[in-house]
Automatic annotation (TrEMBL):
It comes from the Bacteria. Residues 9-155 form the Isochorismatase-like domain. The lineage of its organism: Bacteria, Pseudomonadati, Pseudomonadota, Betaproteobacteria, Neisseriales. CDD domains: YcaC_related. This is Nicotinamidase-related amidase. It comes from Rivihabitans pingtungensis. InterPro entries: Isochorismatase-like_dom, Isochorismatase-like_sf, Isochorismatase_domain. Pfam families: Isochorismatase.
Amino acid sequence: MLMQRDDATLLVVDIQDKLLPAVLDPQGLVERAGWLMRAANDLGLPVVLSEQYPSGLGHTVEALRQLCPDAPTVEKKHFSCVAEHCLPDSLLARRQVILIGMEAHVCVLQTALELKAAGKEVFVVTDCISSRAQSDLDTALLRYQQAGVWLVSREMVLFEMLRSSGHPQFRQISQQYLVPKKG
């Protein structure tokens, strides 16, 4: 199953100021998430931000909020965005949800499982999630697979949104986002 730009929304789960320093590779997470959020903007893929108890954990990291200033931001106390009933109709109207964020084994996981149970096609971007402990991250990846959630990378998202080198934005996107890999 391929991700489709007209059917998908990117949901950025709880990449917040006060929790960020506690997760594995916090700076790398912000850089990779920012890369995908910029690409989503360039390709017209809608973005939604969620924040877990922002009065206690702070808001979405400023560097990411600036990338999508018009993105709806939803607040929650439940770990799952679905359980909180906070997701905008614009997201719920689409059949595919692409998830990034933290923590992989708590809020991202519970949101993914409940979106899947609600009939959505759910894709978790493995290079754009994190947890405080590697064992929790590893176990979350296993649980996603067991539940039938699709595991993808940032580049998979990018190429599936483009679908063809004949896409009108392919040249611009490839020059901007696809730096040749070393080794």
